[in-house]
Amino acid sequence: MSQPNIPFPQSPVLPTMVEGTHVIQFSCHKGIGCWNACCSNIDISLTPYDVLRMKSRLGISSTEFLKEYTVPYEMEKDSIAGVKLRSVEGGTACRFMKPEGCGIYEDRPTACRYYPVALLSMRRQDEYVDRDSYAIVKEDHCKGHEVNRRITISDYRKEQGLEEYDELARGWRQLVLKKQSSGPSIGKPTLRSRQLFFMACYDIDRFREFVDAESFNRLFELPQAEKDALLADDVALLQFAFRFLRQVLFGEESIALNAEAAQVRLTKVQEKRLVEEHEAAKRMAEDDEGGFAEDD
């Protein structure tokens, strides 16, 4: 497996991958000279489970949380989107930063828990499972590396509660890796599929309404007891969202389809495609005729 490419010469991420047994020297605690420095200048990408935990902590819907506390960004050009934590108005500091530390510490995002470690999920082209490796982040302002406290990355992950966070975001990371590794073979995702990905991954309360809608019930044969359990549990619904996306984006069927409804849907899609192809051919013919007229 090759070493990761660090895109910027001044990147604080050291260009060497390490395993969970690697020992780091680090401690972050109140009273250290750089206290709150990281939180004063943030660039924090959120996982779907981060969004779930934070919106629940604040007692608001995922739709409200996304609008108020995040900004979207493209993971790749014309591709699926991610979300980043929005900083304070007119500044770079985290909105949850307080003099005594993080105001939502028990529900802080994955990236905050990992610091100063960076999780690198990747997959070989000939493999169907993702591998987790790590890199170390060293920033000039950080004094945590100077504290004589040694701990393996695996133990650090346990200490920071990352085992739960990583496990519940694994399905999302696999989706992102699958899209990135597929490249041109899958093609540029349509606007509809990008919107579906965003809703299912990040806006869990809108996705719940989507699953509970009659149109979903007509197309998918989901047992009522299973559906009721999903609708009552954010975490279970999020894992179902990943299954749903693997099915609709990559054809990995794990949710039973209503055969009749699926055929009707397929027919409509094919009819729409034929209309689009006919209109495209008509435009090309008109363009050709215009070109001939100019030549004459």
Short overview:
This protein has 11 helices and 9 strands.
Fraction in beta strands = 5-15%
Structural class: mainly alpha
Please tell me what the overall shape is.
elongated
Low-pLDDT segments, ≥5 res? 1-9
Number of distinct beta strands: 9
| Number of discrete helical segments | 11
Question: Biggest sheet, in brief?
Answer: 3 strands, antiparallel
Q: List the secondary-structure elements in sequence, H or E.
A: EEHHEEEEHEEEHHHHHHHH
Over the alpha carbons, how many angstroms does the gyration radius reach? 23 Å
Strand order of the largest sheet: 2-4-3
Binned, the helix content reads: 40-55%
Query: How far is the N terminus from the C terminus?
Result: 61 Å
What this model shows, in words?
With 296 residues, the chain is mainly alpha-helical. It has a domain at 23-180. 48% of the residues lie in helices and 11% in strands. It contains eleven helices and nine strands. It has helices at residues 48-58, 62-69, 110-114, 153-159, 162-182, 191-202, 204-212, 214-219, 224-231, 234-250, 259-295; strands at 23-25, 45-46, 70-74, 81-85, 97-98, 101-102, 117-122, 131-136, 150-152. It has a three-stranded antiparallel β-sheet. Strands 1-9 form a two-stranded antiparallel ribbon. The N and C termini lie far apart (61 Å). Mean pLDDT is 86; it is low at 1-9.
